[in-house]
Design brief:
Elements: E1 6-11, E2 16-19, H1 21-27, H2 31-34, H3 49-54, E3 56-62, E4 68-79, E5 85-93, H4 102-109, E6 113-118, E7 123-126, H5 128-134, H6 154-169, E8 173-179, E9 188-198, E10 204-213, H7 215-233, H8 240-251, E11 258-263, E12 281-290, E13 305-308, H9 313-320, E14 324-327, H10 331-343, E15 356-364, E16 367-376, H11 385-422, E17 433-440, E18 449-457, E19 463-473, H12 475-493, H13 498-514, E20 526-534, E21 539-545, E22 551-553, E23 560-561, E24 579-583, E25 589-593, H14 605-617, H15 623-634, E26 643-650, E27 658-663, H16 670-684, H17 690-707, E28 712-718, E29 721-728, H18 748-755, E30 758-764, E31 767-775
Antiparallel strand pairs: 1-2, 1-5, 3-4, 4-5, 6-7, 6-10, 8-9, 9-10, 11-12, 11-16, 12-13, 14-15, 15-16, 17-26, 18-19, 19-20, 20-21, 21-24, 22-23, 22-25, 25-26, 27-28, 28-29, 29-31, 30-31
Helix pairs in contact: 7-8, 7-11, 8-11, 11-12, 12-13, 14-15, 16-17, 17-18
Amino acid sequence: MERVAATAIIDALGRVTGWSEGARVLTGHRAEEVVGKPAADLLAEAVPARVLAARAGTVTLRRSDGRRTEIALTACPVLGPDGGSTGYVLTADPPWQADPTLAGQAFQQASMSMSVFDIRQRYLRSNAAACHVMGVPEEALLGRFFLDTVDDAPHSEGFLSHLRQVVETGRPVRYESFTGAPALNREHAWSIEMWPLRDPAGELTAVALAAFDSTEQYLARLRLTLLNEAATSIGTTLDVVRTAEELVELLVPRYADFASVDLLDWVLGAEEPLSVPVGDIALRRVAHGSATEGTPEAAIRLGEAEVHPAMSPPARALRELRAVVGQAGEPEFRRWVEERNTLSPEGRVHRQGVHSMIAVPLQARGVLLGVVVGVRMRHPDDYVLDDTVFAEEIASRAAVCIDNARRFARERSTALALQHSLLPSGLPGQAAVEVAHRYLPSGSLAGIGGDWFDVIPLSGSRVGLVVGDVVGHGIRSSATMGRLRTAVRTLADVDLPPDELLTHLDDLVTHLAADVPGEEVAELGATCLYAVYDPVSRRLSLAAAGHLAPAVVLPGGAAELIPMTAGPPLGVGGLPFEAAELELPEGAVVAFYTDGLVEDRERDVDRATEEMCRALSVPADSLETLSDNVLKAVMPDQPSDDVALLLVRTRALGADRVATWDVPPDPAEVAHFRQAATEQLTAWGLDEAAFVTELVVSELVTNAIRYGEPPIQLRLIRDRALICEVADGSSTSPHLRRAHAYDEGGRGLLLVAQLTQRWGSRQTGSGKTIWAEQPLPEGPLPVADE
């Protein structure tokens, strides 16, 4: 069917001067009936003011048969020689008449919203999809300015600015927007493209647009974005509760208006995984969050437990191992909401509008940990299948992070308990030094390390001081630390000098590494510092294996690092250790510490060491106070490594506590020294110990004369125990043996071992020393003379 355009010409006075055949077909009026007459005579209603202003829009005409008809009319001014308007050319089509062309049908029936605007952003055409979005028929839009048809909102201004941009630049524009629309009850995502329309002369006459509803694609991208964020935002710390909080922060408000995480009780403790009960399930709230400040929707407070009935969505999710969705109107959903309102009546008003919820199990490595619940109130959409797939994926990722945190907490607790069991709980009392110690476990994700310290009583009132650090963290490092601490105590009991003790300890670490196939020695390596202080000579001898030098504070002075050469860390092997020695006055303070005190990625080790020395130099009323002052001055808020600090204040045994005699190599002199020892005990008020001491002196001096080499020296020390020492120039150590019935000798050392508390021998630079200790009578312990 051929289409005939309806056209009319009206002069400046409003009279019809031209009438086309199309106008006759449209209205039924012949040209001779209307030409020369006022155009207003053809109107059935007055022309709306907006149509007059826009020179386009819908008007109502009266046909020749009396019927009314609505037409879409456009007026184009006719200009005279002076540029003034001499009349108008009107073109019109009936608005209900479908465009008969294929292109027109495609425009009208397109599934995407399409419209055409003139260069002043007034509607010229809109298809059915656009009218559905706007909620009005096309006639209500034609000729109207865009902003007059929508709400005054930022996204409307943005749409208008893009229309104007096309007019100004003559180039197409493509952009995306997430906005609402007059006839839609929720926001949609739109992919919008605008392009210029030109006449045959190339002049821009209009702007066309097509808007594709990309809401599903937008939501899919949003879910993918949340999944990507989950990989970086969940599990930033190895803390169970914080991980649950991070999951809630990710879900609210983009995925849920309210979200909560409830865990089984054993997850928060150190127990083994438990089977999920078949019936009602008790869960403890560890995290929740809401789009409303203060989370007033929460029916359970943080830390509280709730028993979920067997048919409730959380219990079903745990039992069925899948996401369970509840919608408004469903019996179980209504029951669940009523349970919330019963538990927390004050939150009822904040739960108005709840229309959908989802409960998803938290399961990792085949172990059920708890459940995460999402609730929608303001969010217009219910949870659907795509939401359950997403929720299960994100819950799976979060569950792995929670399980990692649980495992870390359990391992940390085990390692800490193991380490505390291996570290000295109470240091033995002795007269050589006063001690104070601190141990701070690491707060980092790496876990507990292998730092340790020890104070070991040695013969002759001496004391062994140890501080060390095993490479690595965790239970393995703590176990290695325990083995090394035991080894140091064993070697110290043999009375080895510090450098020799570290040599033997180095061999031990190498053997430990060799026992683990494919293990590098450095992985079992450690640093260690071993020192021996003698309160009689007031000399401190020490050696280090890759460990930091201790600091010393002389009475009235400032702290300084002890000059010494540290050997390689334990486990390297083949390199010697050098011993250093210095004499200390009574009252000197020596600080032994591990590298966690002064070394950190965020701090300069030299500066931290200076801060430690300054803190040590400040007088304190006790070593305990001084220990706290040092930690407060040097330690960061969150130490990244374990810290062990051992402070010792030296004491001295004066001449009134020590008696020494040079013994000539003559058996006849033994009785003389027995008598001298008895007289010394009388002077010390220890007559009760005279009998045993005479036997010990007699046996040890006789053995030194008979089997040893000059020079021979006898020494008595009154400390917390009575110590008898006999030194000679021979390096041959004595040993106990069982004497036969008719043997004349061999019973002396056996008597010494039975009569004294303990005995032994130690090698010296000039020979050996045999010693024996016997307990003193009950009474006040002697202290160093002032």
